[in-house]
Amino acid sequence: MDIMLFHSVHGLRPAVLAAAERLRAAGHTVWTPDLFDGRVYDSVEQGRAYKDEVGVDELLKRAIVAAAPHSERGLVYAGFSLGAAVAQNLALGDEKARGLLLLHGTSDIAENARAVDLPVQLHVADPDPFEPHDWLTAWYLQMGRAGADVEVHRYPGAGHLFTDPELPDWDEEAAGQTWRVALGFLDMLGKDGDAAW
Q: What is the pLDDT of residues 71-112, one digit of tens each?
């Protein structure tokens, strides 16, 4: 699969690059756009300050520019936290999108959004202060109304960004399970694509 993988509010950290290598080792082509122009932040507060300074519209524009040369191939959009929100926005705006892999985050959904039969997989801590249960329930229902085929995987007791071994949220067991399930999801998408040809 061709995967566009977006980083979190911490920037393009080693964990994102390691995740990309993990996906490449499984046979996928992966791009990791740097939406923060080389800036990397240790704290959520610092990263959010930069995000607010640049603005969400500009970050989405940077993401679209990064994805545009490859979108004709039929991309799987993926991302971590903020990057998951970015990935969701791009996937819902790309009729050629093959799938959406959300790690630790979601985004608002426009009332008129359409994602007919789009395979979506979300991995999220339970509870997650950035993705509360009420929000996720509403998000799930809205994605369903948009036509997406959504599955949600929750990880009790894990921290928000539990797949990053360099952050306090790191949870080795939850991260391992996430990658096993996510790689299976991507493998399924690849087989579905082969069947379509």
A: 999 999 999 999 999 999 999 999 999 999 999 999 999 888
SS3 at position 102? strand
Strand partners, 79: 6, 102
Sign of the Cα pseudo-torsion (142, 145, 148, 149, in order): positive
Q: Which amino acid is at 163?
A: T
Amino acid at 63: A
pTM here? 0.95
Structural contact between residues 186 and 1, judged by C-beta atoms closer than 8 angstroms: yes
pLDDT one-digit tens code per residue, 112-160: 888 999 999 999 999 999 999 999 999 999 999 999 999 999 999 999 9
- Helix 44-54, helix 56-67: angle, nearest 10: 80
Alpha helices in the chain (DSSP H): 14-25, 44-54, 56-67, 82-92, 133-146, 172-196
Cα 2 to Cα 5: distance, rounded to the nearest angstrom: 10
How many residues in total does the chain contain? 197
Q: What is the DSSP letter of 4?
A: E
Rg, the chain, Cα only: 15
